[in-house]
Amino acid sequence: MTRSDNDSWDLASSVGATATMVAVGRALASRDPRPLIDDPFAAPLARAVGIEFFTRVLDGDIDTQIPGASPARTQAMIDGMAVRTRFFDDYFTEATAAGIRQVVILAAGLDARAYRLAWPAGTVVYEIDQPEVIAFKSETLAGIGAVPTATRRTVAIDLREDWPAALAAAGFDPAAPTAWLAEGLLIYLPPEAQDRLFDEIAALSAPASAVATEYVPGIMDFDREQARAASTQLRERGLDIDMGALVFAGARSHVMDYLTGQGWAVTGVPRAELFTRHDRVLPAPEEDDVLGEIVYVSATR
Ligand SMILES: C[S@@+](CC[C@H](N)C(=O)[O-])C[C@H]1O[C@@H](n2cnc3c(N)ncnc32)[C@H](O)[C@@H]1O
């Protein structure tokens, strides 16, 4: 399915299915003998979506081995989700230690941080995503008796619409410092929407706010055909996600420069450094790696 201006999805289709995919990654990473993260909600949420391929992966019925890839590379994909999740978990721990009590998770997907992190009393967590995604997560977690560990407020809207107005209507306080997160989002936004997103975040950020995201420096060279070939391999194994059609490639702002230009003090940590920090092995990139390097970014202002 190719993207269009007003496309929408649930967690089993289009961009929504990528949220389920990363939840599966968190579930597998949580089972690691040396876990960096503990997300007890990832597996029940991903199972509830009901994509057979992912359910079978979680059941251990399908080898998580990527066809043609070494076991080390497959493990590195799971470790990649572990270090990414841990980076943003640590970001929120630091933000709340610095006194921030207002959090906005953009494109929250099946992110269960509002239920699994130890938020200080008084913290409000806003989650923004498409209406079907938000409703599914709220209902599924309520159904298994999960209780948020902060005040959780949901904002069911497309980020291409007037989400700042919807956030304000949900109670967001622009005078309070905020910790923002845009995880696993930017490659699904057209380049100009990425800039607009950071402009809107900056406009809503009181002094002492923070923002975190990740970006793919090589997205300019993203090879749609290569991504299609990878998707074909997955389709043969029962998973129908065409990453080549979901991602917006081509020239876009360099995230760290863009944030710096807005007055943020920016830090970027390459994925390889996170692997070293957490004593994980990152195999050398292979020819068919679709995205290549990823840089994890946090900033304060
Ligand atoms: C790869 S998932 C990441 C989800 C979550 N941040 C995580 O890391 O687990 C991408 C998410 O972006 C959301 N998303 C992408 N474009 C969006 C848009 N225009 N409006 C609202 N949500 C969007 C999708 O619904 C999906 O939940």
TrEMBL record:
<protein>
    <recommendedName>
        <fullName>S-adenosyl-L-methionine-dependent methyltransferase</fullName>
        <ecNumber>2.1.1.-</ecNumber>
    </recommendedName>
</protein>
<keyword id="KW-0489">Methyltransferase</keyword>
<keyword id="KW-0808">Transferase</keyword>
<dbReference type="InterPro" id="IPR011610">
    <property type="entry name" value="SAM_mthyl_Trfase_ML2640-like"/>
</dbReference>
<comment type="function">
    <text>Exhibits S-adenosyl-L-methionine-dependent methyltransferase activity.</text>
</comment>
<dbReference type="GO" id="GO:0032259">
    <property type="term" value="P:methylation"/>
</dbReference>
<comment type="similarity">
    <text>Belongs to the UPF0677 family.</text>
</comment>
<dbReference type="InterPro" id="IPR029063">
    <property type="entry name" value="SAM-dependent_MTases_sf"/>
</dbReference>
<dbReference type="InterPro" id="IPR007213">
    <property type="entry name" value="Ppm1/Ppm2/Tcmp"/>
</dbReference>
<dbReference type="Pfam" id="PF04072">
    <property type="entry name" value="LCM"/>
</dbReference>
<dbReference type="GO" id="GO:0008168">
    <property type="term" value="F:methyltransferase activity"/>
</dbReference>
<keyword id="KW-0949">S-adenosyl-L-methionine</keyword>
